[in-house]
Design brief:
Layout: E1 9-13, H1 17-28, E2 32-36, H2 42-49, E3 60-62, H3 66-72, E4 75-78, H4 84-97, E5 103-106, E6 127-132, E7 141-146, H5 152-164, E8 168-172, H6 181-197, H7 203-211, H8 214-221, H9 223-229, H10 235-253, H11 261-275, H12 280-300
Parallel strand pairs: 1-2, 1-4, 2-3, 4-5, 5-6, 7-8
Antiparallel strand pairs: 6-7
Helix pairs in contact: 3-4, 9-10
């Protein structure tokens, strides 16, 4: 299975927000990139968003179809619509066109690879999910999820290649809807929506509670290591002994909100009020600058 430095040409299927970011990552690492998206004007939008780096950077080519991407790539990263029937069509075409030792990966945020890899009649063992977080050229995490037919060799090749591209992949050992990080986010969002719905706190205050509270610590060490440090000399064992029982009581009191039209309106209006006219483009630009600086600080202090 092609991996690591043997991956010289990156195939990107779908050039929305995730696909564009995959393209940038490939170019920044000196790879040639072959991209394709069936949407009208997709090539023009891609080239307008991607500033091809100079020096050792690779080239960017927009393909005429899926088959061209599959035939040219040493690794395929698919970021098409989150619809199972579309995934199945895409992977069947890629499987027919790509060499047998080329990994075919999906950026799916929640679909399990077993639900679409059986559409690949040639080499289903090289199909898996490699789920990034937006924007993937900056955020290190990628969740690697194999399906029922995925080989151990394919999983190891994906992990090796992603590390080679500067990512911090984790292997999800069993398929579950939403993988892992999105399930953790969903758990937090569920309670956040509940608290807003009940009028206990505003949307802006929820964002402050996380961004200026535990979110700062989680971004450096994660929830388990952070909880361990809060226990002093006794560490996590001390925390669970003394704070575990009341936490279980909190679990029993957590909400189960319904995503009604009224709640959606309340959440959307709350974000609009919080941002107060700040453009999304401006906010994304400043967020990405902060991400770069944070990652540099983590590396400098050995927290990466």
């Amino acid at each position: 299975m092609r991996s690591g430095e043997n991956v010289r040409t990156l195939g990107v299927v779908g050039t929305g927000a995730i696909g564009v970011s995959w393209v940038v990552l490939g170019l920044e690492h000196g790879l040639d990139v072959v991209a394709w998206d069936p949407a009208e004007g997709a090539e023009e939008r891609l080239r307008a968003q991607v500033a091809v780096p100079t020096g050792e950077a690779g080239s960017l080519r927009f393909a005429e179809g899926l088959e061209e991407v599959g035939a040219a790539a040493d690794l395929v990263l698919e970021s098409g619509p989150e619809r199972l029937e579309v995934k199945r069509e895409i992977f069947a075409a890629l499987d027919a066109a790509a060499a047998g030792d080329v990994l075919l990966t999906s950026s799916s945020s929640g679909l399990m690879p077993s639900t679409f890899q059986d559409a690949c009649t040639h080499h289903p063992e090289r199909v898996l999910v490699a789920h990034p977080f937006n924007p993937p050229h900056l955020v290190p995490l990628v969740e690697v999820v194999g399906g029922s037919a995925t080989s151990a060799e394919a999983v190891e090749a994906a992990l090796e290649t992603l590390r080679h591209l500067g990512k911090r992949p984790i292997h999800i050992r069993r398929e579950v809807p939403g993988h892992v990080a999105n399930r953790l986010q969903a758990a937090l969002w569920r309670e956040a929506y509940h608290l807003v719905d009940q009028g206990i706190v505003s949307v802006a205050d929820i964002d402050t509670a996380i961004a200026d509270g535990p979110g700062l610590r989680w971004s450096l060490l994660g929830p388990f290591a952070t909880q361990h440090l809060s226990g002093g000399p006794g560490g996590l064992g001390h925390v669970l002994e003394h704070l575990g029982p009341p936490m279980v009581e909190w679990w029993d009191d957590l909400g189960h909100p319904e995503l009604t039209a009224g709640l959606v309106e309340k959440l959307v209006d709350g974000v609009d009020e919080e941002l107060d006219g700040t453009s999304a483009e401006d906010l994304v630009g400043r967020r990405d600058q902060a991400l770069r600086r944070l990652l540099e600080i983590k590396t400098d202090l050995g927290l990466d």
